[in-house]
Specification:
39% of the residues lie in helices and 18% in strands. The protein is built from 10 helices and 12 strands. The chain starts with a strand and ends with a helix. Bound molecules: NADPH dihydro-nicotinamide-adenine-dinucleotide phosphate. The site of NADPH dihydro-nicotinamide-adenine-dinucleotide phosphate has 28 residues, from helix 6 and helix 9.
Length: 254
């Protein structure tokens, strides 16, 4: 079987290494490649991949919203307006970012009694917000542009806040793209603590967001955790088998 991730840019993606490691761990010779697809070309490219016999694709930035139009999205993907996993045989499209993130949070023993502060109101924040509220987490959303935080909170049933102190929460998730640049001006904890800080971004270096929380005593996790969590659900969706998560984690350096 042939699989791929489409996005722009996509050359940096760890998905090919991660999925290939999963196939090899189970003795499968499936392939998984990264294909750069510019915005506006998703439908043409998905038609081509289907005709070429590809079984499934992951969809990454900035194509997740566009992929909805080509696929038959399930109810959750429609709610969050983004598809990141498609079965090309059926056109069935799902979003594994939100459910994958929630499954991973549960694996950290984060309970629905723990309060969560979500930073950001973009595409990834939207998927995580809906999934966390639906799983029962008490969720508060902050965003640089506060109107977007209020709008997302209203849509998913969370609270919005303009000036949060992360120290008041057990879990803080950075779903902004600030870490892709200089780090931005994000809320920081007012006192040392023992909470969990998660940055969805991943790179070779620690982000300034995780550095600040780590220095304050928090447990820190980078975006490779979400990468594996959403990838494991995609693997299970396409192949109907439990994903070999340890092989996938090792492939991304966890
Ligand atoms: P979007 O472009 O949809 O949203 C960007 C968000 O970041 C907005 O809320 C925006 O706020 C905020 N933002 C941007 N710059 C700054 C800044 N300097 N300071 C504060 N806030 C800022 O991005 P995505 O949701 O697609 O991606 C967000 C992050 O998640 C990226 O770092 C991406 O790499 C990561 N990601 C990781 C994945 C993984 O598998 N690990 C999967 C998907 C995404 P405003 O509304 O004010 O503009």
């Amino acid at each position: 079987m042939k699989f791929a991730v489409i996005g722009d840019p996509v050359a940096h993606s760890l998905s090919p290494a991660m999925h290939t490691a999963a196939y090899r761990a189970l003795g499968m010779d499936h392939t998984y490649e990264a294909i750069r697809v510019p915005s506006g070309s998703v439908a043409t490219e998905l038609d081509r991949l289907t005709a070429d016999g590809y079984t499934g694709v992951n969809v990454t930035v900035p194509l997740k919203e566009e992929a909805i139009a080509w696929s038959a999205p399930d109810a959750f993907a429609k709610r969050v307006q983004a598809v990141n996993t498609i079965d090309l045989r059926s056109r069935h499209g799902i979003n594994t970012d939100g459910p994958g993130f929630v499954r991973w949070l549960a694996s950290l023993n984060v309970s629905t009694a723990d309060s969560v502060l979500l930073l950001g109101a973009g595409g990834s924040a939207r998927a995580l917000a809906f999934a966390m509220v639906e799983a029962g987490y008490p969720l508060t959303i902050w965003n640089r542009t506060s109107e977007r935080a209020m709008s997302l909170a209203g849509a998913c049933g969370a609270r919005a806040t303009a000036e949060p102190d992360p120290s008041d929460y057990q879990v803080v998730v950075n779903a902004t793209s600030a870490s892709m640049g200089s780090g931005g001006d994000l809320p920081s904890p007012s006192r040392p603590g023992m909470g969990i800080a998660i940055d969805l971004y991943y790179s070779q270096a620690t982000t300034s967001f995780l550095q600040v929380f780590g220095d304050a005593g928090w447990q820190t996790y980078d975006g490779r955790e979400l990468l594996v969590a959403q990838g494991a659900l995609a693997f299970e969706f396409w192949l109907g088998l439990p994903a070999p998560v340890e092989a996938m984690r090792a492939a991304v350096g966890l």
